[in-house]
UniProtKB/TrEMBL annotation, chain A:
This is Carbon monoxide dehydrogenase. Residues 1-169 form the FAD-binding PCMH-type domain. Keywords: FAD, Flavoprotein, Oxidoreductase. It comes from the Bacteria. One of its GO terms (molecular function) is FAD binding. It holds the Pfam family CO_deh_flav_C. PANTHER family: XANTHINE DEHYDROGENASE SUBUNIT C-RELATED.
TrEMBL record, chain B:
Gene3D superfamilies: 3.10.20.30, [2Fe-2S]-binding domain. One of its GO terms (molecular function) is metal ion binding. This is (2Fe-2S)-binding protein. Pfam families: Fer2, Fer2_2. Keywords: 2Fe-2S, Iron, Iron-sulfur, Metal-binding, Oxidoreductase. PROSITE patterns: 2FE2S_FER_1, 2FE2S_FER_2. The lineage of its organism: Bacteria, Bacillati, Actinomycetota, Actinomycetes, Pseudonocardiales. Residues 1-78 form the 2Fe-2S ferredoxin-type domain.
């Protein structure tokens, strides 16, 4: 085994092109567990922590470019107000020690159906920037998750950043675990309001082979809000709308029975999470509208 | 491979380090610092918590090579010679130590909390220590110890 420590991104991409079997490591919260337990013996580790630009974020025209190596703790502290949904999801990851190391880039690289940030990336319409010696390309979060722990990355590519819109409206994330902290999601849900497009983004985690959008629920709710003119004059949502939204989210799941929960439980729980997060986000939206008036 | 790092203020060197080895293994087995405990090896128990460039991390999840040129502070580096750090002394005084295995990790996590939040509320203490498991104490005395350390100005 080799330990490779590129100092710059071009250097890292050159290594990855030459050695596609080299496993990228940033926070190590997944990779080191596999090594410690002898589940994996890659030919080389490609340490990305020496590449300064991966640990930086910037803003251009209302879009935040979040370097793949920014740890969750910094995301929460520095971008909590601008990326509220993602920060909420980040706060549910592991423990302080894990959040100090773990990154959104790592979450994407692992592409676990239970990864905490995925539902938010889908609901907010994030784009994943990947690079290789052939150049860089942008992959919509929608197209990124291909299967259980499989993503759209080519063998010579590295995840360099995630692009997300600076939140203009409320976002929510909710997760169910078997205890309060240090827990993998039994299921999770991300919600983002997009008043400028009169759309709602909604996505589930840990209830299908990949994280996925709840499209039927999104279409239904977006239609209801637009038809009733609720974006402009946000009256309270009818209970029947919230319930139907939850039902459609549940119908869009494809969960499994496992040690953490049954498929039936996951499906039901997601309808509840959907209803609750919608209620919270809408309350916040209404409060915001009032304070602006 | 060879790894050079600063540990508790001292320049150290570890040789013949396997490329997939953890910082925890380097600290315990190569540098003779057994304070950080090896338990779960998956970042769940927090017993190996150390500061890496002033940020608390699970040493079992840091690849040894990632510590090259960086600064590590272990539980051994908290005391000033024979004089315990106020957090360590508070753990002793509050009876927060039973078998002692989880203690080093809890002390480092509590030390970091008090440096950031000198007077934490109970909820903040619970959240800050959520990544540290203990199988003896029931945590109540650990909470007492952190509160005691706060009243002694441990974070100051």
């Amino acid at each position: 085994m080799e330990f490779l420590r590129p100092a710059t991104l071009p250097e890292a991409l050159a290594v990855k092109a030459e050695r596609p079997g080299a496993v990228p490591i940033a926070g190590g919260t997944d990779v080191m567990v596999e090594l410690n337990f002898d589940h994996r013996r890659p030919e080389a580790l490609l340490d990305l922590t020496g590449i300064t630009e991966l640990g930086e974020w910037s803003t251009t025209n209302g879009t935040i470019r979040l370097g793949a190596g920014v740890p969750y703790t910094r995301l929460i502290d520095e971008l909590g107000k601008r990326l509220p949904g993602l920060a909420m999801a980040a706060r549910t990851v592991g423990s302080p020690q894990i959040r100090n190391r773990g990154t959104v880039g790592g979450n994407l690289g692992a592409a676990s159906p239970a990864g905490d940030t995925h539902p938010v990336l889908l609901a907010t319409g994030a784009t994943i920037e990947v690079a290789s010696t052939r150049g860089s390309r942008m992959i919509a979060a929608d197209d990124f998750y291909l299967g259980v722990k499989r993503n759209a990355l080519e063998a010579d590519e590295l995840i360099t950043a995630v692009h997300l819109p600076d939140a203009k409206a409320p976002q929510q994330f909710s997760k169910i675990g078997t205890r309060n902290a240090m827990v993998i999601a039994v299921c999770s849900f991300g919600l983002a309001l997009h008043p400028e497009r009169q759309r709602v983004g909604a996505a589930i985690g840990s209830a299908a082979p990949t994280p996925r959008r709840s499209r039927a629920a999104e279409d239904f709710l977006s239609g209801e809000l637009a038809d009733a003119g609720l974006w402009e004059s946000p009256a309270p949502l009818r209970d029947s709308v919230c319930r139907r939204f939850g039902e459609l989210v549940a119908e869009g799941t494809e969960p499994i029975d496992d040690v953490r929960g049954s498929a039936a439980y996951r499906r039901h729980a997601l309808s509840v999470l959907a209803r609750r997060t919608l209620t919270w986000a809408w309350q916040e939206y209404r409060a915001g509208e009032r304070s602006c008036a | 491979m060879r790894v050079n790092l600063t540990v508790n203020g001292e320049q150290r060197q570890a040789d013949d380090v396997w490329e997939g080895e953890s910082l925890l293994y380097v600290l315990r087995e190569r540098l003779g610092l057994p304070g950080s405990k090896n338990a779960c090896e998956q970042g769940e128990c927090g017993s190996c918590t150390v500061y890496l460039d002033a940020v608390p991390v699970c040493a079992c999840l840091v690849a040894a090579g990632q510590a090259e040129g960086r600064e590590v502070r272990t539980v051994e580096g908290l005391a000033d010679g024979d004089r315990l750090d106020p957090v360590q002394q508070s753990f002793v005084d509050a009876g927060a130590v039973q078998c002692g295995f989880c203690t080093p990790g809890l002390v480092v996590a509590a030390h970091d909390l008090l440096a950031r939040v000198p007077e934490p509320a109970d909820e903040e203490i619970r959240e800050a220590l959520a990544g540290n498991l203990c199988r003896c104490t029931g945590y109540e005395k650990i909470l007492d110890a952190v509160k005691l350390a706060a009243t002694r100005g441990a974070g100051a």
